[in-house]
Amino acid sequence: MLDISEFFGETTGGVRTYLLEKARYVQRRPALRQILVVPGAEDAILEASGVRCYRLHGPPIPTQKPYRLMLATRSTSRIVAHERPDLIEVGSVWCAPWLIHLATRRHDVPVVWFYHSDFPRIIAPRPRTAGWLRLGASVLAWRYVRRLGRLARATLAPCEAVAHELRDAGVENVIRVPLGVDLARFNPLRRANASATRHSFGLPAGRIAMYVGRFAGEKDLDLLLAAWPGVERRTGVRLLLVGDGPARRTLQAGPGADRAIWLPFERDRDRLADLYAAVDLAVAPGPAETFGLAALESLASGNPILSVDQGGVAETVERSGAGLLYAAGDGAHLAQVAEHLLGQNLPALGARGRRYAEEHHSWETVFDRLFSVYRDVLAA
C-alpha cells in the first residue's frame, strides 16, 4: 500500500505517529509492504524492512508550520508507476489528493481518504457566533470535502461524531476507523519515576494539568490559558503546555500565559511517556479534533481528561468515562468543570481510562481493523 500525506513534519504529532506506527505494523508482517510519500526540506529515499519512504521537497506553509506543501506532480506519478501499489491512502487535504488523482489516471489504483483534519469546523468552530465571512468559507470547505470524497472509494473517519458529520455533508461510504496507542510505552508503571521525571524537566512540586500538542488557533488554547489562573488560585494545580506551533508567540503574550509552564516539542517518545506519567490530568481544549492521539496517550498513562464537549476527544471521554467535558467557548464553564474534576479521585479515573485504552485502542487492534477495511475496498 502507499500512504501519502502533507500532515507530516518534524514536530507534528497525530498523523506522523499514525503513519510510523503503521510502518512498524507492516515491518512485522512479511506479506505487507508500505510506501510512504511525505514532504521534506529536500528529496530523499529511505528504506527499512518492507517500508520505503520518499521525502519530496516542498515549501513550508507560512501559517501552518511545520507543514509543507507537496507540489511534485511528476515525482508522485513516477512513484505510483514504479511502486504499483494495490491501494493508496491519502491523509491530507491540500495538494496530495490531486497529485494522486493525476497519478491514478494512467494506473487504476483504489484510493481511500483518511479524514484527519476537520478543516470546515476549524474555519467556523462555532457557527452560531461566526461572522458571514467564516460561515461562507466553511460552506465552500464542505463543498471541497464532498469533492475529495468523490475521488476516493471510501472515506475513513477516526470517530463516530466525525463520521456522522461527513455523512450529513453528503460524503458517501464513510467508515469509522479509530486510532491507537502504544500501550507498552504509555503506561502507568512509569509513575514510579515521576519525581525524577519532574526534576529532569524542571517542573514544580504539586499537581499539574498538561496539554500536549500543536500550538494553533483552532486548539482554543487562548481560552484555556485565560481560564486557568482562576483554577490555579482555587485548587493549586499548575498548567503545563508541551509542544510548538504557529500560535506560540501570540499565546505566550496573552492572558494567563505568565502563570503557565511552557516546554518545547518533545521528540523523544520515551521522555514524553515519562512526562505523561508525571502529571495528574490531561487537558484537551481543541473543539475540532478528529480524534486526539495525545488524549489517548494520556489515558493509557493513567491520566483522566478535561476536554471540550466537541470533537473526537469528547467522544473518547464519553466512551471511557475517564473525565469531564465543558461547553465549547465558555471559559467560566471550563474553570467550573476543571475544579469539579480536580475534586474527584483522579487515580481511579485514570485507571478506568487505562482499561479503556487496553480494551479498544492497541495499535495491533486498530491496524487489524484498518487492513480489513483495505481488503474490503479491494474486494469491491
Name some characteristics of this structure:
380 residues; alpha/beta; Rossmann fold; 6-stranded parallel sheet; 14 strands
CATH topology name of the largest domain, in short, is Rossmann fold
| Total discrete domains | 2
> Structural class per helix/strand content?
alpha/beta
Strand content: 15-25%
Secondary structure tally, helices: 15
CATH class group of the largest domain = Alpha Beta
**What is the radius of gyration computed over CA atoms, rounded to a whole number of angstroms?**
21 Å
Distance N to C terminus: 16 Å
CATH superfamily of the largest domain: Glycogen Phosphorylase B
Helix-strand string: EHEEEHEHEHHEHEHEHEHEHEHEHEHHH
State the low-pLDDT regions, or none.
Answer: none
Helix content: 40-55%
What's the story with the biggest beta sheet? 8 strands, mixed
Main-sheet strand order equals 3-4-2-1-5-6-7-8
Mean pLDDT: 95
Name the CATH architecture of the largest domain. 3-Layer(aba) Sandwich
According to DSSP, the number of beta strands is 14
Shape: globular
